[in-house]
Design brief:
374 residues; mainly beta; 24-stranded antiparallel beta sheet; globular
């Protein structure tokens, strides 16, 4: 019996080694921007394994057939939770696994501890349908029990139809089959997504049942997405159905601009009206400035109004190894704690249990006195 067990163990070990040798791994600091799950998960700002040991990155794992089977957000070998390093509207969990069957692609979502979770609403699993050419034609969300579910945006099903060239028609529906917008604050329904030769999304056209451009409730008929030489999503421009610049779609800019550092971290956000003047968000902020630590964790956000006055300053402090967020602080211009008028607190201290789960979130006022739950 022992001999059989040893042989079995040896076979499993050899098989595992062969499997690992057949796979390969790539490391990227950031993800290519996606507005739709139709697009592939792709990385930008590629780094080597040595750099990946020391900073936040996305690890891409491919199988022996060059199919992507896992993407995870990590520092070194540790999967990390949200570090406020925003990349895409389509990234919902610290880890995603991908399985392939005939005509299907199945994605599942996991937290930083390896537990399958509901991501972006009651979504445990996303099931894509593919045509014989391998192009995605539809996708549905399912809950923990395998029952149809909806995302945080109220979407259950995406439907894609190949159009012309590098474009695809997209529609979205809830569980009752009613049409849904791209996002709650982005009120395009039927759209044509146009991709460039680099497979980056360039245009989003809002169409009626006859395929004609129409304006939405926010005066917009199309969005133009622009990237810099590094592949960062650097600008969006909004036009009406007559292709004239318009201050439309949330947050109501004609042009919105993202600024990046040399690592691809987003260090600035601002918007402009049709005349090219700086324009404020509905909240009053006109310019957002972010800073990051050596791990690429976001450590501070400052929001300024049109006159350059500081409206809000939020600081984030992480563990010494960069893997855990420990403090969130609301600060004034001099770095002193202040009570945030929206949340009525000045700081949050996060503590963790031995297994890495958040054990408590202790709230404090500006005098660093604990705010007790009522």
């Amino acid at each position: 019996m022992k001999v059989i067990q040893l042989i079995t163990a040896l076979i499993i070990t050899l098989f595992t080694q062969q499997l690992l040798q057949a796979q390969h791994t790539e490391y990227y600091r950031h993800l290519v921007f996606r507005e739709s799950p139709y697009a592939d998960l792709r990385g930008i700002h590629q780094i080597d394994k040595a750099k990946a040991e020391a900073e936040a990155h996305y690890r891409f794992v491919y199988d022996e057939e060059e199919q992507l089977i896992e993407v995870s957000h990590r520092i070194g070998d540790d999967v990390i939770a949200n570090n406020n390093n925003w990349d895409s509207f389509m990234w919902f969990s610290p880890k995603v696994t991908i399985q392939y069957t005939s005509g299907e692609e199945v994605r599942e979502y996991y937290d930083h501890l390896g537990q399958q979770i509901a991501a972006h609403g009651n979504v445990y699993r996303a099931v894509f349908k593919k045509d014989p050419q391998g192009r995605r034609t539809a996708m549905r969300f399912y809950d923990e029990k395998g029952q149809p579910s909806e995302s945080e945006w109220g979407i259950h099903r995406y439907q894609w139809t190949q159009h012309t060239g590098e474009s695809v028609m997209e529609e979205r529906f809830d569980l009752n089959g009613e049409p849904k917008t791209i996002r709650p604050e982005f009120t395009f329904y039927t759209v044509q997504l146009v991709y460039g030769d680099d497979d980056y999304l360039d245009f989003i056209y809002h169409l009626d049942e006859n395929g004609e451009l129409i304006n939405n409730t926010m005066k917009a008929g199309l969005d133009r997405i622009v990237y810099d030489n590094e592949g960062n999503f650097s600008r969006w421009m909004v036009f009406d159905k007559d292709r004239k610049p318009v201050e439309g779609n949330a947050p109501g800019f004609a042009i919105g601009e993202h600024l990046y550092d040399c690592r691809g971290n987003k260090v600035g956000l601002r918007g402009f009206d049709v005349e090219g003047n700086l324009k404020a968000f509905p909240s009053g902020g006109a310019r957002v400035v972010n800073t990051y630590d050596r791990f690429n964790n976001q450590t501070e956000v400052k929001v300024y109004d049109l006159a350059g006055a500081l409206l809000q300053r939020v600081g984030y402090e992480y563990s010494a190894d960069g893997r855990r967020l420990e403090w969130i602080r609301f600060l004034d211009a001099e770095g002193n704690l202040v009570d945030d008028p929206r949340s009525n607190l000045a700081a949050i201290h996060l503590t963790y249990s031995e297994d890495g789960r958040v054990a408590s979130r202790v709230r404090y006022n500006a005098e660093l006195q604990e705010i007790k739950e009522i």
